């Protein structure tokens, strides 16, 4: 049977036991349907081999080779990844366009007796839904920005708010990045994978309730925000956490402990700021890195790099600002701050 995707939420509603991407590993790595596993019909080298044969010899010879390779790979999957699947197992299979690769694997698995569905249009059908969601429709819910200068615990507060009844979009979580030069957390998703995560989150929003989004630039690390979201963020009202510089510096030392444990990496990031600041200032920051003067370095970076940029960015945006004053950002104070933010978001205006 074939399955037609009419909305991003269809996958969850249909309740397939497993979603299987039978494209090559490199195609899967760039982007795939949420939760999909990769059981390739052809690996990257095999796919290239079949493609070359198709162009240089004949389509018939390419199909014959492809059929042999797909059958061999399907047998391997049946003997390994699928060996323990029960008789009532319901997988969804897809490839790039819903063509030969997914058709071949679906046929073999169906012959076993499993209730196999094949995604009509393949990955491209999913991608069309993502593009429609992010680029062709207005943003689905009212946006409120959670703002505050660097070190004001915005991300930590944001992640406490769902349990307090607040609808949120965790953009930094989806991008696997803390939103600054110092914010790398390991490999980021591809742009397409980031967009897929974001589109699925938007499709799940309640349009009758506001959604709280952390104030960001239009780029989070290497991931670009789609225009509809960026426009909604620029026009949105803001709730701004306002904390003393000393409290923010202390918070940064806790939040970026992984970076402080790697002075070489920290020095390289500071060096990347050289085009933006006088040479003497960058040399002073590098001296602080060498001395391990982390609190002084955090204060300097806030004063001369981050705070001025935040202020210039805010001057170019639209909505009003409601300040939430705090004196302390120690761990025991963060839940109370989240309570105050939640009350502002959930109280009718």
From TrEMBL:
InterPro entries: AAA_SelU, Rhodanese-like_dom, Rhodanese-like_dom_sf, SelU, Thiosulphate_STrfase_CS. The keyword Kinase does not apply. Keywords: Selenium. Coiled coil: none annotated. SMART domains: RHOD. Residues 13-131 form the Rhodanese domain. GO terms for biological process: tRNA wobble uridine modification. CDD domains: RHOD_YbbB. One of its GO terms (molecular function) is thiosulfate-cyanide sulfurtransferase activity. PANTHER family: TRNA 2-SELENOURIDINE SYNTHASE. This is tRNA 2-selenouridine(34) synthase MnmH. It comes from Haematobacter genomosp. 1.
